[in-house]
Amino acid sequence: MQDIEFVMADKNNIINELTENEYKYGFTTDIDTDIIPKGLNESIIRLISEKKEEPEWMLEYRLKAFEYWKTLKMPDWAHLNIPPIDYQDIIYYAAPRTAPKYKSMDEVDPQLKETFDKLGIPLEEQMRLSGVAVDAVMDSISVKTTFQDTLAEKGIVFCSMSEAIKNHPELVRKYLGSVVPYTDNFYAALNTAVFSDGSFCYIPKGVRCPMELSTYFRINAAGTGQFERTLIVADEGAYVSYLEGCTAPMRDENQLHAAVVEIVVMKDAEVKYSTVQNWYPGDKEGRGGVYNFVTKRGICKGDNARLSWTQVETGSAITWKYPSCVLAGDNSFGEFYSVALTNNFQQADTGTKMIHLGRNTRSRIVSKGISAGRSQNSYRGLVRVAAKAENARNYSQCDSLLIGDKCGAHTFPYMDVKNTSAIVEHEATTSKISDDQLMYCNQRGISTEDAVGLIVNGYAKEVLNKLPMEFAVEAQRLLSISLEGSVG
Amino acid sequence: MQKEIILNVEDLRASVEGKEILQGINFKVAAGEVHAIMGPNGSGKSTFASVLAGNPKYDHISGKAEYMGKDILDMSIEDRAREGLFLGFQYPVEIPGVSMSNFMRLAVNEQRKYRGEEPLTAAQFLKLMRERAAVVELDAKLMNRAVNSGFSGGEKKRNEIFQMAMLQPKLALLDETDSGLDIDALRIVATGVNNLRSEENGIVLITHYQRLLDYIVPDYVHVLYKGRIIYSGDKELSLKLEKEGYDWLIKEYESK
């Protein structure tokens, strides 16, 4: 155990990373991009569907969602201060023109490869060393899918959403919108109408996916909104661990990101979904940055199903995100592990919903908020126990760590319990990094900035430990980088 | 041959929240020496150690403190530490979630970096850590626990000496490292310190009790009172203080 921890600390190399001051991933790759005009109307949606060569049923579904969206207003209940968004001033579709799929890495646009290298995710290395199949999403279109052959042998489908719509229409039609219908909320409706691409994953009965599946997201084309759509289905007794990571280039104007992720977990199946989110947070004065309004939800449909969300959120100017579990099957289990870090003028309103419907369902929530600068960080969580959910159990732990005295941490736990046999626990703590702790570290030769990184990573460890190793390393580094200049 | 002077403090005055605690301290430590600083509660012993280490709570009023010929009062806390000044804390603070081994590894490598040395690899560090933990009979399992979290009083103090053993300071200020220790733990801590004692370094023991000095025999014993060193002697002084208390010294001092 010891040695593993050291290896991680080695890779992690917090110290060197701290010499950086600006957003590390702030660059734009100059690749030809296929862009449609600004604005949102029926003909734009038809154009998107046409460009993607979609079947008629998909277009109809999009149009229905659009009609419904027009009747909705942006939600305003979150503890967020969102500037007005002109939805007609957004470009809803951009695809790299180098679009066709490549058979080998040699065929991939060298500039694109370079971009991934800058992000620290060389595809080759990913393929060779880590055994991770990568469905790399650049802007909106899936550029490179790896390991598909290995996966295909086991009957696993892992491809872009566009391909799934063409090649596996029966699966897509059955499950798309079954967990997050377009009527769910404003952004879900918008996403359904205009989603560009995303990932689709189906694990057949009894199959354990032999590798971590991952998708890297990036915003690239100027002024492009990103509307990713992800659907994961784990059939009876199946298992999959799915990783999602985002970094975005620096940009002045605000960018809207409204993704939808749906997960279906059948009887005895298990899905782990991990996210490291590092969209551009805006500059030190709060200018620019990504608006991240995401709907993520999974359903434990069958008995004994398990669903686990783990997220490390360090980016975005504004985050509105509540990865949730609907525990429908008896004995099913939902987990939510979260680290949300805000600095400068960032705002985050994030948490989870655990909806207990089946008997003996259990859920666990561990939320670690870290606020620095002038940021506002809110945890919002709902635990609902339905009348028929006998013996439901929930444990929630919400911790807040404050750095400095100009930031805010807020906790909004909601409980709605309709069954008297339920046990719902909630614990919350708020702490500050103490001067004595910093003095102790300083006296051993550790600078204040390193000490803060060390303490914050320690505070978040319970969540970081839930991440797959390579992600944990990246996440640790991100936490330190994101706090640069927040003390002293 | 003249011994190397590690610490030279002249007429040092310092205050906390406007209250002057150190009222003109003169104090010198040469290589190879062990000094004990004793004195009644509130005389400024811990403040003296904190000011030397650089605790920002205290304000320097006047006087100087030179460490290895350099003015340390303008140096950051971490640079003083990297220069080889170590403070064994009276109340070691807990840092939840940060393992002792990660903490120490960062500390050791930061100090190595400062000296222009390569960082230790994981394997080298582990070996060093096991070796040095043995010096204070500290269970290596504690290294996987969070810094001082859930450590017993004795473990915390032994942990301070362990860190001293890891960092090999030129000057160690040990602030009441003996308080709260039972007789076995005291012996272990004292043995640890004695093992680290050398002709190259200096050690300053701040203590209330003669007991510790039975194990670590000091070259000099000083009595601090109202922010000044009012009397200095050798080992015999501590024995006399043990028997007769500070009253006779204080009376003598006040009458001057």
Helix content of chain A: 25-40%
Largest sheet of chain B: 6 strands, mixed
User: Structural class of the helices, strands and pairings of chain A?
Assistant: alpha/beta
Q: Main sheet of chain B: which strands, in order across?
A: 6-9-10-3-11-12
Number of strands of chain B: 12
What's the structural domain tally of chain B?
A: 1
CATH top level assignment of chain B: Alpha Beta
User: Which pair of chains has the greatest number of interface residues, and how are they split between the two chains?
Assistant: A-B, 33 and 43 residues
Total of helices of chain B: 9
CATH homologous superfamily caption of chain B: P-loop containing nucleotide triphosphate hydrolases
The span between the termini of chain A is: 34 Å
- Residue fraction in strands of chain B: 25-35%
Work out the helix count of chain A: 14
Shape of chain A: globular
Per the CATH scheme, the topology name of chain B is: Rossmann fold
Output mean pLDDT of chain B: 92
Shape of chain B: globular
In N-to-C order, the SSE pattern of chain B is: EEEHEEHEEHHEHEHEHEEHH
User: Low-confidence stretches of chain A at least 5 residues in length (pLDDT < 50)?
Assistant: 1-22, 97-103, 124-132, 137-145, 217-224
List keywords for this structure.
heterodimer; A: 488 residues; alpha/beta; 11-stranded mixed sheet; 10-stranded mixed sheet; globular; disordered N terminus; B: 256 residues; Rossmann fold; 6-stranded mixed sheet; 29% strand
Chain-wise SSE layout:
The complex is a heterodimer of chains A (488) and B (256).
Chain A: H1 2-12, H2 14-17, E1 33-35, H3 42-51, H4 56-69, E2 94-96, H5 110-118, H6 123-130, E3 133-138, E4 141-145, H7 148-153, E5 157-160, H8 161-167, H9 169-175, H10 186-194, E6 199-203, E7 213-218, E8 229-234, E9 239-247, E10 255-257, E11 260-265, E12 270-278, E13 290-300, E14 306-313, E15 318-321, E16 324-327, E17 333-342, E18 347-356, E19 362-371, E20 376-385, E21 393-402, E22 408-417, E23 423-432, H11 435-443, H12 448-459, H13 461-464, H14 469-482
Parallel strand pairs in A: 3-7, 6-8, 7-9, 8-11, 9-12, 10-13, 11-13, 12-14, 13-15, 13-16, 14-17, 15-18, 16-18, 17-19, 18-20, 19-21, 20-22, 21-23
Antiparallel strand pairs in A: 1-2, 3-4, 5-6
Chain B: E1 5-16, E2 19-30, E3 34-38, H1 45-53, E4 58-67, E5 70-71, H2 77-82, E6 85-88, E7 95-99, H3 100-114, H4 122-135, E8 146-147, H5 153-167, E9 171-175, H6 183-196, E10 202-206, H7 210-215, E11 220-225, E12 228-233, H8 235-244, H9 247-255
Parallel strand pairs in B: 3-10, 3-11, 6-9, 9-10
Antiparallel strand pairs in B: 1-2, 1-4, 4-5, 7-8, 11-12
Helix pairs in contact in B: 4-5, 5-6
